[in-house]
Amino acid sequence: MRVVLRDDVESLGKKGDLVDVADGYARNYLVPRGLAMKATRGVVQQAEAMRRNREAREVRDRQAAEALVPQLAAKRIEVKARAGEGGKLFGSVTTTDIVAAVQEQTGVVLDRRNVSLDEPIRELGSVEVAVKLDAGVEATVGVDVVSE
Question: Tens digit of pLDDT per residue, the chain (148 long)?
């Protein structure tokens, strides 16, 4: 059965895509949950409009993300943490702390899930952190962990 997706469905497609699926899958899962609708001539035209809107939104989002890359790369982010002897932190600096510091110091709002930190930072010093801004757009943020 040919259906038009009304929402993104993992491993199947994105909103506005025209896909062929098994009849039972469409009838029992996709359509009752509002994830898809049966493809008719009018619905296919509507799907094309949804797909064009999605593509335009993705282009705008990518351009906005690319504009943020030099802004993030130009400034080093300073995160203050309590430290003991030898530069060991009493706690750790996590992605949440980094996101809060970036927002406070640059005004750029990031999602903590897009900050790539292998493990929390537990020592004073400088670290380069990769941030995924959009699909295919990544920036490197310099983070300086300093003692309070």
Answer: 999 998 899 989 988 889 999 999 999 999 999 999 999 988 888 888 888 888 899 899 999 989 988 988 888 999 999 998 888 999 999 999 999 999 999 988 999 999 999 889 999 999 999 999 888 889 999 999 999 8
Considering the entire predicted model, what is its pTM? 0.70
* Distance between CA atoms of residues 45 and 16, nearest Å: 10
Sequence length of the chain is 148
- Cβ neighbour number for residue 7 with a 10 Å cutoff: 13
What distances in angstroms separate CA 136 from CA 69, 81, 133, 144, one per listed residue?
Answer: 12, 32, 8, 26
